[in-house]
């Protein structure tokens, strides 16, 4: 079974992708510094798969420590790079930390990949690279504009680095850049899901934590946008579908079908507003959600959703799980968590 290194593999998207890789016949190897995840994710993965997945407690930005992983795992077939800080609002407050971690870890990874002749990379990018788009939906050819946050700029920088590397003489690293939208939901078992440390920055975990009594109420940031109900519109993709997209991308590279650099949107192809998500959650759970409206949040774009045609035509990838079903899995995960941790 071919080994795939998964940086940030104990995180939200990473843990689901590790499960999907293993179920597809690969051997995932996790590298994570647990700055925004917990060891309990490894227990969830083990429970789902009925087996342990090797995990290195290592910071990807620490080249000395990360080299030890490459020295130990000498026959890697590829890398999926998730490890990054990802909160838009926090990036506005701590821009230097975001540049140092997100850009720095990619540079270290690429240097090690070249040194150890590991030539396949699937990179976790984001729809934030489009900034505030002029037209919707966004395609892979939609111009990238000034990012609305330092987080978005780090993803733009990382994409630029991978494109520049592809033009370097003698470069053998091939990269697939997956620009994904807003992952939500949890594994159907309810054994792994989204559990950010501290107060959630993403909508759905804040919704589920409010419904469970962990939070007093949800704040809907901005109801005066130029959208049908005034709240922001996003493309909410089920995390299990997103995980599957990474497996498809890895397989494309190993089959020798990938070009030097390829870009794919990974979304559902349509958008839902924040208030629509709230109403859908209330419908799924059968209970009202406590929420209030607040001012716009710095860094948020009014609306963005994907044109997913290229992924369907080239990768053969299509999403399978809709909004309500995804929210139901998120609620199952939240209920399994039990009482709020101290």
UniProtKB/TrEMBL annotation:
PANTHER family: UDP-GLUCOSE 4-EPIMERASE. The gene is galE. Residues 4-267 form the NAD-dependent epimerase/dehydratase domain. Keywords: Carbohydrate metabolism, Galactose metabolism, Isomerase, NAD. SUPFAM superfamilies: NAD(P)-binding Rossmann-fold domains (SSF51735). It comes from Hymenobacter oligotrophus. The keyword Ligase does not apply. It catalyses: UDP-alpha-D-glucose = UDP-alpha-D-galactose. It comes from the Bacteria. Homodimer. Belongs to the NAD(P)-dependent epimerase/dehydratase family. This is UDP-glucose 4-epimerase. One of its GO terms (molecular function) is UDP-glucose 4-epimerase activity.
């Amino acid at each position: 079974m071919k080994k795939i290194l998964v940086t940030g593999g104990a995180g939200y998207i990473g843990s689901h992708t590790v499960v999907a890789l293993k179920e597809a016949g690969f051997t995932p190897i996790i590298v994570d510094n647990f700055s925004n995840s917990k060891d309990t994710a490894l227990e969830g993965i083990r429970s789902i798969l009925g087996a342990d997945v090797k995990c290195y407690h290592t910071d990807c930005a620490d080249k000395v420590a990360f080299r030890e992983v490459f020295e130990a795992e000498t026959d890697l077939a590829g890398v999926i790079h998730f490890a990054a800080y990802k909160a838009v609002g926090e990036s506005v407050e701590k821009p230097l930390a975001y540049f140092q971690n997100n850009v720095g870890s990619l540079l270290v990874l690429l240097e090690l990949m070249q040194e150890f002749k590991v030539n396949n990379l699937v990179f976790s990018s984001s729809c934030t690279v489009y900034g505030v788009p002029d037209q919707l939906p966004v395609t892979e050819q939609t111009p990238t504009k000034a990012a609305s946050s330092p987080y978005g700029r780090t993803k733009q920088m990382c994409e630029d680095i991978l494109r520049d590397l592809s033009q370097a003489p003698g470069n053998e690293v091939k990269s697939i850049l997956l620009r994904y939208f807003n992952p939500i939901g949890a594994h159907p078992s309810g054994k792994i899901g989204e559990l950010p440390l501290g107060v959630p920055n993403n909508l759905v975990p804040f919704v589920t934590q409010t419904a469970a009594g962990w939070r007093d109420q949800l704040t809907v940031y901005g109801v005066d946008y130029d959208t049908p109900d005034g709240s922001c519109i996003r493309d909410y993709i089920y995390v299990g579908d997103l995980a599957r997209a990474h497996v498809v991308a890895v397989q494309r590279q190993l089959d020798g079908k990938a070009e030097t650099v390829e870009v794919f949107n990974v979304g559902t192809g349509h958008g839902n507003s924040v208030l629509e998500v709230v109403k859908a959650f209330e419908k799924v759970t059968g209970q009202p959600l406590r929420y209030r409206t607040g001012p716009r949040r710095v860094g948020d774009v009014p609306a963005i959703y994907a044109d997913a045609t290229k992924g369907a035509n080239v990768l053969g990838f299509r999403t399978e799980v809709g909004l309500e079903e995804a929210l139901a899995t998120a609620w199952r995960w939240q209920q399994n968590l039990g009482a709020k941790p101290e």
